[in-house]
């Protein structure tokens, strides 16, 4: 099931509510990424404590490990990983794309060798749907080909982007057929492709809208293109999608990217940046970013962000986090991941409150000024 | 301050209550080890949740990082690491001893090069007390020389063990003098040495008892000796210590060692085994040990231990833990550390309940039978 209620708008920005099989998600929302059935270094109870509403899983990874037999045995990913709220899974398309020269794409699907054990594998729109059914994901993503920014050393041409986009469209139809073969409590999202070409984005979008899917994503951004190129596509595409359906910008991005995305009409975001940067001692805060390894934090008794209410900022100082990082202690990435995810989740909560209060433009101005101010 | 109340005895086994500057500790007790100001991979809130009453810190490590200036600035280790309950710190003696050929022992103290940055350092009974004062440890350990089981390739001789034990005694007196130079809310423990020689253990013990310290530890066990040798010393020494003062067996050991230690009259234990083994996917349970990497757990929906009430066993299956371990996910050591520490902490809670109920011998018999049964 999927219901989407549009509660409030401000320009292209939207305040919504998404009802899924495992619960309600207030939008705009940031979704922490749990590739292998765990948001790296974070207990599910910590995710609940910080107010995470929905998390991601990766079809490709979970197919390889633990494997579909195990996930079937557990009745899906929720019970396996101890998370009872909604889950969205990507289709495996992006991961297969990341394999680069190690995979071979045909009309039928993608052949590749397992990076875990070398087994020859074949992923198709149909198998992607079957795996995501085993995962029992609340939101199932179509299997697509992620159009790269560069192809064989040159910028992807319009011709190449069109061929790729049209393949993703044919795969969208096969996904929908396979998805509908069984009764299904979950929802299938289509993915708009088209590379850096606005007219291809529109062709992709229109054809997907004809399939009347319950939600749509914008894929093929954050794939190596310069920031202005990404911004051009993010400004172009989201508001052209149906107003009564949720819109998901895949794999984006910095806090600034998220706020710009909301302003452009996006409802849902995911990104590994908060957890990956946390493991590199790079923390996001209201007043710019903090590099914990900087020796100026050695004696700094303040929390990472004095306005932050996360577990890390409530209990620990910059000096302590700097010390843990310096000693290579596991608690350093643990506490940094809690902080960064809380920052992202809370940023979207503040966005929702501003939209509710009709003060989104002021919020955006303040957000930009605060972030530019930098940390003292 | 230190008050020790002896509530119950059964043979040499004792049920007690220790009141320290930062709170009350029910004994027998297991103390998780937090070397660098963190119990590796475990949030302080998880330690509280599992019922940990007191944790360790390492004087040697904390002296090097973050350094005494930082700890002084925070008014001690408690606020720095976010733990408000009692803390015991070792004196650095054992760590300096572990440096092997890299250190030089004299009457005055130990000279060595910092393993962090090569700085030349000099640790003495006086500096150990000064560092532990900066840490504001509820229980301060005397600086001692840990007598090794083997010296230069041969079993440590009676002569060598005596020289070492007598040095530790002279250092105990210097520690007490330095400790008493300032008013102090904390308590200094002496450490009985004497190697594998019962008469030396008794000489050490008697001389330390003459100093009328508030508590005593047994050191120099778990230093490479065969298990029966350790058992011989653990059976010999604890009950010879003053009945009205707490007794701490340093660095021991397996669950079986702890239960034997209690039966021999020990009140307090610490060991890195639960956390270190957790990081190697080795879990302790009521019914023997579980090696999570074993592929038979791939589809095992049961918790690690069905009788266990820890966060890990309440929320996650063996199959999930096996999967996390196989994928090298940080959550694997995190969940395993929570389980193992809970097992140790809870084992001592069960011991206390048995002593309260007057059923300690039955408890020991059941404990041994259960552990020997093995996991299904």
Automatic annotation (TrEMBL), chains A, B:
Q: Where does Zn(2+) bind?
A: 308, 310, 313, 339
Q: Which cofactor does it need?
A: Zn(2+)
Which intervals of the chain are annotated as region RNA binding? 251-257, 275-279
- State the InterPro entries in the record: ArchSynthase1/Queuine_TRR, TGT, TGT-like_sf, tRNA_ribo_trans-like
Matching entries from Gene3D superfamilies are given as: Queuine tRNA-ribosyltransferase-like
One biological process term from GO is: tRNA queuosine(34) biosynthetic process
Name the family: Belongs to the queuine tRNA-ribosyltransferase family.
Role according to the record? Catalyzes the base-exchange of a guanine (G) residue with the queuine precursor 7-aminomethyl-7-deazaguanine (PreQ1) at position 34 (anticodon wobble position) in tRNAs with GU(N) anticodons (tRNA-Asp, -Asn, -His and -Tyr). Catalysis occurs through a double-displacement mechanism. The nucleophile active site attacks the C1' of nucleotide 34 to detach the guanine base from the RNA, forming a covalent enzyme-RNA intermediate. The proton acceptor active site deprotonates the incoming PreQ1, allowing a nucleophilic attack on the C1' of the ribose to form the product.
Output this protein's name: Queuine tRNA-ribosyltransferase
Q: What is the organism of origin for this protein? A: Piscinibacter gummiphilus
* Gene that this polypeptide is encoded by: tgt
């Amino acid at each position: 099931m999927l219901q989407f209620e549009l509660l409030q708008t401000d320009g292209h920005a939207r305040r919504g509510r998404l009802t899924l099989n495992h619960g309600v998600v207030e939008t705009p929302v940031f979704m922490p990424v749990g590739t292998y059935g765990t948001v790296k270094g974070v207990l599910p109870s910590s995710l609940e404590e910080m107010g995470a509403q929905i998390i991601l899983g990766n079809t490709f990874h979970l197919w390889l490990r633990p494997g579909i037999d195990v996930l079937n045995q557990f009745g899906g990913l929720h019970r396996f990983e101890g998370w009872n709220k909604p889950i969205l899974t990507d289709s495996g398309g992006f991961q297969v794309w990341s394999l680069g020269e190690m995979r071979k794409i045909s009309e039928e699907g993608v052949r590749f060798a397992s990076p875990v054990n070398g087994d020859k594998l074949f992923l198709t729109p149909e198998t992607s749907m079957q795996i995501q059914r085993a995962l029992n994901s609340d939101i199932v993503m179509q299997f697509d080909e992620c159009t790269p920014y560069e192809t064989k050393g040159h910028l992807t041409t319009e011709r190449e982007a069109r061929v790729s986009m049209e393949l993703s469209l044919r795969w969208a139809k096969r996904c929908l057929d396979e998805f509908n073969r069984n009764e299904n409590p979950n929802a299938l999202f289509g993915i708009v492709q088209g590379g850096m070409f606005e007219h291809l984005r529109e062709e992709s979008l229109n054809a997907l809208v004809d399939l009347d899917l319950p939600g749509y994503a914008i894929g093929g951004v954050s794939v190596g293109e310069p920031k202005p190129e990404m911004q051009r596509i993010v400004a172009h595409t989201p508001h052209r999608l149906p107003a009564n359906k949720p819109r998901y910008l895949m794999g984006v991005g910095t806090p600034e990217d998220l706020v710009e995305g909301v302003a452009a009409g996006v409802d849902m975001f995911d990104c590994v940046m908060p957890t990956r940067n946390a493991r590199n001692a790079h923390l996001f805060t209201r007043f710019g970013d903090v590099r914990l390894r900087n020796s100026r934090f050695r004696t700094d008794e303040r929390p990472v962000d004095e306005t932050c209410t996360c577990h890390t900022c409530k209990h620990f100082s910059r000096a302590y986090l700097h010390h843990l990082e310096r000693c290579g202690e596991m608690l350093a990435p643990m506490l940094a991941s809690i902080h960064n995810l809380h920052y992202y989740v809370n940023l979207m909560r503040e966005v929702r409150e501003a939209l509710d209060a009709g003060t989104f433009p002021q919020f955006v101005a303040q957000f930009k000024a605060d972030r530019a101010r930098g940390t003292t």
